[in-house]
Amino acid sequence: xxxPEETPxxxxxxxxxxxxxxxxxxxxxxxxxxxxxxxxxxxGVVLCPVCEWQDAQRNACSG
Length: 63
Hints:
Layout: E1 26-28, E2 35-39, H1 49-61
Antiparallel strand pairs: 1-2
């Protein structure tokens, strides 16, 4: 079966994810208060590596 020429997508491309903002100063974790590896100006929820890992485990097991 011949494939028609590719047509452009009707959906816009997803926005680029907000990356890490360089520090210091580093933001404090919202759950435990320890320093994170993200700069203070990083948008969204900022977690330290331990809390980030624990959050990923909880989400993976939530089915």
